[in-house]
Amino acid sequence: MTTKEICATSFDGLLEKRGVNRRDFLKLCAGVATALGLSQTAVPRIAEALEEKVIGATSGALAPALWLELASCTGCTESLAQVDTPDIATIVLELISLNYAETLSAGAGHSLEAAKEETIQAGGYLLFIEGALMEGWNGDALRIADERGIDIVEHAASNAVAIICAGSCAVDGGWQAAYPNPGGAIGIQAYLQKAKDAGRIEYEIPPIVNVPLCPANPEHLVAVLVDYLLLGTLPALNQFNMPSLIFDQTIHDNCPRRGHFENGEFVYRFGSEEEAKGYCLYAVGCKGPETKSNCPIVRWNRGSAWCVESGAPCAGCATANPTRQGFNWVDLNTPFLHHLKNIGIGGLRFEPAFIAFAVAGVVVVALAIHGFGMKKTGRTKGGADFELERSWDREHPDQALGSAEAARAAAAVMGVAVPEDIEVEAEAEEAEALAEAVEVAEAIEVAEAPTSIVEDETTEEGGGN
Ligand code: SF4
Ligand code: SF4
């Protein structure tokens, strides 16, 4: 038997011991390729790299790793560890020597802290960090093993080959940094840079890979890890230190409901006929157009489903800015069931109706006029009716879907003048605004628009959002 055959036998035996057959293993490697944005032709290379590392692991070639648990709900650990049968996450955990993880380690107390310290002294380890750092009360807002969290991170980062921030809390403070942020939650990258600028740390900050989402998708973490093991380098990163192949495309780009968005077919109320038809969830708060992650491709729960497919609007948990406080996904996206005001494309902001025009020609005007009807019947006032309206929206009614702005944008495209003083929110002026909208519609020969406004008044009365 050749060495290769021996290795192959050993590897298959290793898989078998963990209840995984060869076919499943290759399927799981295909999942990693998808998460990494690689073509399926990369699957054999991924499989080979994993095999070598697993075989290598038997001779002590495991990559050392520490997993710090800071201020968090441990959801990212759960996400990675809660697998019903051994899958790629389990197998890859066999590739690293996880020397310290408060939630997963069997050991505890002084022996576990000693293992962490030995690993730091030896260097060359991957440092996974879950949760936000807390600067509040001079750092005492977070203490672990009688040490401040900020001291733990400063020390643990000192000898790491790379820091992998798992989940939005570690990336930019996440939900814990949401206003008013009494504990001073902050992401790892921003904190280390502050500490460096203040002269509290003298070493070069190791490369940081930010992997947001709440919780982190295990496939994303595994993909980063496999990329590191496969190529010996970290994946290509964007300006936020997030893997480009995962976080440089919007949810909206890959959403199966996208066709409904472009047709102006929206769900306005849960339990409605539109929802049953699988229409676009934009009007009930989907943040997919502004959220960058490949969730529709990688999906969740071993690829079985993902948020929008399950009927829930994307809450935008991938949105993170590791360098700016206050740009966390919760502050930006709540109330979660309230629709986005407009959508950014190439640095410009557009109403969805405007985008629909670009895609479908004249549909934009119909949407804008239809928006007046929605506005009049209250369907766009606060997203779903069981969530409180955000104060910003109350103060800026003109920027809501169906606003005068949408009509102006549409009219501008069509070369039709619209009076500057259209106001839709004030009751006294609403009828006039609607009349003006109808005039715009007539001017550009969208004959059904007035009818649709009347229909909205009658069919949606008392039932809209
Ligand atoms: S708005 Fe949301 S549900 Fe609609 S197409 Fe975009 S991502 Fe999909
Ligand atoms: S679809 Fe949206 S809410 Fe769901 S995990 Fe992805 S980014 Fe988060």
Structure, described:
With 465 residues, the protein is an alpha/beta fold. The chain has two domains: 60-245, NADH:ubiquinone oxidoreductase-like, 20kDa subunit (Rossmann fold, 3-Layer(aba) Sandwich), CATH 3.40.50; 252-286 and 335-459, no CATH class. It is built from 21 helices and eleven strands. It has helices spanning 3-17, 22-36, 43-58, 75-81, 88-93, 109-122, 149-156, 168-172, 188-197, 218-231, 244-247, 258-262, 273-276, 295-298, 329-333, 352-360, 363-376, 391-395, 404-414, 427-443, 449-459; strands spanning 63-69, 96-101, 125-130, 133-134, 143-144, 147-148, 160-166, 185-186, 208-211, 343-345, 348-350. The strands form four sheets. Strands 2-1-3-7-9 form a five-stranded parallel β-sheet, with helices on both faces. Helix 17 (363-376) packs parallel to helix 21 (449-459). The longest helix is centred in the last third of the chain and has 17 residues, at 427-443. It is globular. The termini are far apart. The model is unreliable at 1-7, 359-394, 422-431 and 441-465 (pLDDT under 50). The structure holds iron/sulfur cluster (SF4) (2 copies).
Write the layout of secondary structure elements.
Elements: H1 3-17, H2 22-36, H3 43-58, E1 63-69, H4 75-81, H5 88-93, E2 96-101, H6 109-122, E3 125-130, E4 133-134, E5 143-144, E6 147-148, H7 149-156, E7 160-166, H8 168-172, E8 185-186, H9 188-197, E9 208-211, H10 218-231, H11 244-247, H12 258-262, H13 273-276, H14 295-298, H15 329-333, E10 343-345, E11 348-350, H16 352-360, H17 363-376, H18 391-395, H19 404-414, H20 427-443, H21 449-459
Parallel strand pairs: 1-2, 1-3, 3-7, 7-9
Antiparallel strand pairs: 4-8, 5-6, 10-11
Helix pairs in contact: 2-3, 2-10, 16-17, 17-19, 17-20, 17-21
The protein binds iron/sulfur cluster (SF4) (2 copies).
One iron/sulfur cluster is lined by residues 213, 251, 291, 293, 295, 306-307, 314-318.
